[in-house]
Amino acid sequence: MRVGVFGGTFDPIHVGHLIVAEEARVSLELDEVLFITAGQPWLKEGRKITEGRHRMAMVERAVASNAYFRPSDIEINRPGPTYTVDTLAEVRQRLGPGAALYLILGLDSFRELHRWHHPERLFQMCKMVGVSRPGSQDLDLRALDDISPGASTSVILLETPLIGISAADLRRRLSKGMSIKYQVPKCVEDYIYEHGLYRNQTVPGSTLSKEDRPR
User: What pTM was computed for the model?
Assistant: First the structure.
């Protein structure tokens, strides 16, 4: 069984995430892709992150229409800081030794890999997959050999459509009452407005109802 592991804060999940996951699924012939919603990402300490239950609910709705996508709450339910090596170990325990794991990361994440918790273990636990993002389309693979000898030759690089959508920009647009239509699945858009997410990041206490949403 070939399983893609696609983790992220997903604050909120958007169509760019879904396109990358589908491209990886098809290119790598994956049996399924796990969307793992981050719990408390230690690299994002100090940044306010939307409650896990909301982020998880949006992921569940976003992936429901794809039979090969699976939402996972293993990091949301784990107390304390979130480390990818712990997540991979838990996924391995659940799926068994016969599963081949493929960790899907943006190329920008590879540049920060030396800061991760025990990054050398990642190359032993899974196949590392790098996908390009707008503004991050090149990677000096040789730098990875400083983390784990031979790592530069083991990374799988995928070409995926460059979708210029970011969760940070979506949060900014929502805080200003701007439209995010077509940048997130409609079910996610509906959830955001229903729960008044992101609207009060710049104006505390304000919410955007379904009636007030941008058209």
Answer: 0.88
